[in-house]
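Handover notes (outgoing to incoming on-call)

Open items:
1. VanZ family protein: sequence verified, structure written out, both below. Nothing else pending on this one.
2. Nothing else urgent.
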Amino acid sequence: MGWSSATAAVDAVVVLWPVWAAALAVLVWMRGRGHGRWGRAALDSAADVLAVCALLGIAAVTLFTPGSVKAVELAPLRDIAATGLGVTGLVQSGGNAALFVPLGAVLPLALGRRLARWVRVLAAAAAVSAVVETLQYLVADGHVASVDDVLLNSAGALLGAGLARPLWRGGRPRIQEGAAPGGCGPRGPGRRVSRGAGPR
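VanZ family protein structure tokens:
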């Protein structure tokens, strides 16, 4: 991942800001008109738009920049060991991890917060990275499809989710076991409570 490709991705996001603004306005209107909670609609819609921006940035950096070698590396940690702990290796490994930090930060907040779990963020990031590596090998010029990239991308996504943890911690309401809807107390009407049955 070079500075030129990263700069091109940032430029694309900035140039297309009217498109992002229009998409955000449409999403807020569609979500807010039903329940009237415009603040929550705005936050959820902003997370969705930012997630799309992060995905497009990843695509711009990985798929539209030429490389020098086309190969497949399926042995875990071999690429990381080959690049070593020098400046070049740290920049390359750190860049692969940093590429997915923004995506990991917004994934728990996007899609109605359906991915607001560590394992779901990890699974989604690994799936996106695997798709990117496959497309790199099939359609991009001179790129190495490596399992190490998937590992580093996934680690970066978890780092991003950790940095954004205060925003999505407890974001999805959970119904406590034994609580009845409508504020009827811990035992709702008609609810049978078993006494004497131990935990299973």
